[in-house]
Design a protein that fits this description.
2% strand; globular; mainly alpha; two-stranded antiparallel sheet
Length: 318
Amino acid sequence: MWRRDDHRTNRMSTAPGLQYEPEYPNPPRRGVKKGVYLIPSLFTAANIGMGFFAVMASLRGFQLLGQVIPDLAGAAAHFDNAAKAIGWAVLFDMLDGRIARMTKTTTEIGVQLDSIADVVTFGLAPAVLAYVWGYGASLTEGTAAHQFGWFISFMYLMCGAFRLARFNVQSSRPRILAEGTIKVDKKSFVGLPIPVAGGLIAAIVHFSPIPLVYFGPERARIYSVLLILLMGVLSLMMVSTLRFSSFKTVGTHVRSMRVVILALAVGMLIFLYSQYVLLGIVIAYILHGLLSRVVGVFWRRADSPETKVEPHAISHDG
């Protein structure tokens, strides 16, 4: 069959008056391909822009608190805008990675740029926001508590940067890591993701943008101590080996209207009740990771050989 087709093709090409021109596939458009590669980088740039805006808005709000007559309403508006900017940055951070995976335009420079953006937006910006909105203004400057709060903000930034560096190393060289290091799983993150940690700080500020100094010296001091403890816990969770779901595979294999309806419902709830929904989503995500670890520990203990009772065979003599 193949030989007959070849002879027929040769006859068509050699017959007088007939010219056989083979069809070649259209060459790829390099300009369009380069444009596709730029799309994830645009979302990463928006991520950095939101982080820069959050830092500047936080500093402006802190400046209003330092006036002779503190402008609490103006400061609260700036703090709320900073928290909203971090919230938008979380969305941009989710989209740039998902778009890069869907369009197969993941690059090494894009990965590194995304990590730098996360350090600025979810490391530096929440640390500054927690300081100026909370213990930086409510605790007396120069005291041990104030200095400790400043140190916790710095450690939060350092732990977030370490979390991102560890993630990049594990993603690029998962097979030659030191023995005992947890293997990389695409379905889960090792350690609390820094966008979630920064998102929790932003959600708390968005829930109550009034600075803590508004509640009076005693209550402000108590709230400041609690905020410092929360920053410390988030720092430890970022560098821990706890596993948190990545949700990278959600909506990629199953094309169903349920996913679209659920996304629209969550978006509408955020639009109407952002102060409550955003805080609830972040807390639920963190509790899900912690409870999964606790359930996994008890599950492994229940399945351990020591707890299993081997049935003995009953012999019938006689």
